């Protein structure tokens, strides 16, 4: 993938050099791009290099603004209200795009997307990106939750787990695993080593805890997300409580150090993990010989896995001054070859384009994409993030953190306790 990226980069730079040799003064073409994702420094470094490909190919200058989701919403609303539109294209995730569409802040790009050739874009996120038959955003990547296992844990794996082995009889992939087997695996490790090696990271800053917990509840049959007190959710919570009682979950002091499993996995504190495919992909790519990948675990009672999922998308702001270049960006970022490089460069997030999926190979990032796709193809219960229904999504996260802290006591959660946590959640509804 790196060689392919560099080759394309050099070709486009060469093309830009040729353009620069022309006698006439070229027309100045600009694109003002506002990004509410890509918050990690490494992601921004990659994206900046990636944007240079676009600039070279389309003879344009791209001005990138990185901002938070809340600040981008305020920025676009202000520009539209003041009739002073500066932004051309915005990057928004499916959990936060409702105000943009309902507020009539975005251009209808139905024709732009329909006219794109040689690419088949998934309709999985149409309910978020479209309204009344009109398309306002196009997905360029999406993510799901998968599992990862330190090879040091393999000697303790339950014999019932479905695995792939190589010619040397070494496990190279977890094909299917239940939450019950996941818990038993942790118990086997604790019995043999005296150490806890699983748990969900629970740092309050930028908390991500509600997503793996939500996926687990969906696997056990919870009817919606977020939901804390139905039968499926309660079964999931008490599976966690049972793992805590068996002393297989890391101490809260350790889990509170981070909001993603990456550092805990790399330090060897976590051996078994279920989390967002981005951080898990980063961990795997850093030392692929140290880990094996797996899908989201299923629950024995339902036979299904569960996961939250979301897509990152691009849309054109209504009244954009650089509409033509904005449409060029939509065409560029959804080109199958370019989109493959984009998704690979971000650690192996899933491309929403069929032609990209069809060309996946055996590189480390391709394996991560494949692990995510296996969850979707398994019939898992997958849901988006209805952040727009709540007054404060961070407050929703805090309720999950309080619940998780309660489960770490190892005491079975009662229905009345679950109802009390649900009442806190309901109080945050708009």
Number of strands: 14
* SSE-based structural type: alpha/beta
**Beta-strand percent range:** 15-25%
CATH superfamily of the largest domain: Periplasmic binding protein-like II
Residue-averaged pLDDT, rounded? 93
Q: Regarding CATH, which class of the largest domain? A: Alpha Beta
CATH architecture of the largest domain: 3-Layer(aba) Sandwich
Task: Name the poorly predicted regions.
Answer: 18-23
**What is the terminal separation in angstroms?**
45 Å
Sheet with the most strands? 5 strands, mixed
Which radius of gyration do the C-alpha atoms yield?
A: 23 Å
Domains counted in the coordinates: how many?
Answer: 2
What name does the CATH topology of the largest domain carry? D-Maltodextrin-Binding Protein, domain 2
Which key phrases capture this entry?
D-Maltodextrin-Binding Protein, domain 2; globular; 430 residues; 2 domains; 15% strand; 5-stranded mixed β-sheet; 3-stranded antiparallel β-sheet; alpha/beta
Please describe what this structure looks like.
With 430 residues, the chain is of the alpha/beta class. It folds into 2 domains: 2-142 and 309-373, Periplasmic binding protein-like II (D-Maltodextrin-Binding Protein, domain 2, 3-Layer(aba) Sandwich); 145-308 and 380-426, Periplasmic binding protein-like II (D-Maltodextrin-Binding Protein, domain 2, 3-Layer(aba) Sandwich), CATH 3.40.190. 44% of the residues lie in helices and 15% in strands. It contains 18 helices and 14 strands. The chain has helices spanning 2-20, 41-58, 69-81, 98-102, 110-114, 126-129, 179-193, 210-219, 231-245, 252-255, 262-266, 277-286, 323-334, 336-345, 354-357, 364-377, 393-407, 415-426, and strands spanning 30-35, 61-66, 89-93, 130-131, 134-135, 138-143, 145-150, 162-165, 171-176, 272-276, 291-294, 306-308, 310-316, 381-383. Strands 2-1-3-13-6 form a 5-stranded mixed sheet, covered by helices on one side. A 3-stranded antiparallel sheet has the order 10-7-11. It is globular, with a radius of gyration of 23 Å. Mean pLDDT is 93; it is low at 18-23.
